[in-house]
Amino acid sequence: MSTTETDPRDAPRASGGGEAPEPILSARGVEVAFAAGFAPGGGKGTARAVDGVNLDVSAGEIVALVGESGCGKTTLARVLLGLERPTGGVVVFEGRPMRYGSRDLRAYRRRVQLVQQDPTGSLNPRRTVYESVAEGLRIHEGTTADEAERVAGALSGAGLRPPERFLARYPHELSGGQRQRVVIAGALVLDPEVLVADEPVASLDASVRGEILRLLLDLRDELGLSALVATHDLGLAWNIADRVAVMYLGRVVELGTVEEVLAAPAHPYTRALLSVLPDAGEGEPVVLAGEPPDPKQVPPGCRFHPRCPVLASGEAERAGVADLCRTVDPAVLGGGAERRVACHWAAADGTGRVRAEAGGAG
Which ranges form a coiled coil (predicted)? Predict the structure, then answer.
């Protein structure tokens, strides 16, 4: 199922059986709405970029947030980083709601670090590797006596060894994979507990994508780091994640372990995303009708129903849920580690694989 050349799945998963650990970072009912000018039908519109999301990341766990471009995953990542303030709900870190005072955010951002998508764009071409990695350290702590040692340690931890070879180089002297490692080192130098990575390998060649994924797994195993990885790539999620949250039009529509969601998907949207992977197995790829709806005009009922192949094929009608799909919004999924899906048809299809949370929006 991987779309990368190196398969890091032989690394041990952090989560196993038994009771789920207390989450280190959580979104609880998070909503983000933007005034969006004039809607196509006339009048001002409000775009609901994130529309009620509950999501937990436990210590030492990697959670993949998967969905098409525009589904809200980058906005949610920004909220979890404290870069965007939610219009509803709350972000909780180590059991405490996030506070937005400048001193509080400064302390928080030491512990929850961003790994950006484009290492070329995020690195200043006029700064050496040393200066780029030391920047965050200087912002948070000023110049310290052990700065050089900590920068070298972060570069080594990110796989740039020996670090002395890279300290005086500039971004244009590095490969794409090396630049991404410098970006990761810039996060590691502050000894964070959580990394939030937005499409961390999207700009890299296939030959080095697996190396960066392996690095993230090694950091999880060696340092106990947690990570939320936002991606459109289900192959990446299969290779790196302990759990997967599938997002559509501002909502998480399916949630579970990587094996549950990607080996036995229950939501028609997840099934469609998986069907186009090169080694998805038998059957034709599912081509979804149309484009994702405008977040200013969320459809009634299930927000996926205008594009749903199960509804279009008559399967939902045979299951007796077609009217529900068109008129009743499935409940907002809860957080935690339980297997969940927001789909009337999955709740009624008789397979017994998933107990869906369906009904009025909660």
Answer: none
Position 16 confidence tier, pLDDT thresholds 50, 70, 90: very low
> How does pLDDT run across 299-332, given as a tens digit for each residue?
999 999 999 999 999 999 999 999 999 999 998 9
pLDDT surpasses 60 at 2: no
Phi-psi region of 301 (alpha: psi -120 to 50; beta: other; left: phi over 0): left
**pTM of this structure:** 0.88
Contact 248, 324 (CB under 8 A): no
| Residue pointed to by tokens 């050349």 | 5
DSSP string, 317-344: HHTT-HHHHHH-PPPPPP-SSS-EE--H
In whole angstroms, what is the distance from residue 158 CA to residue 59 CA? 20
Half-sphere exposure (CA, 13 Å, Cβ side) for 147? Answer: 17
CB 52 within 8 A of CB 24: no
Q: Are 48 and 33 in contact (CB under 8 A)?
A: yes
Q: Can you list the domains of the chain with their CATH numbers? A: 1-11+22-121+192-362 (3.40.50.300)
Please tell me the number of Cα atoms within 13 Å of 41 on its side-chain side.
6
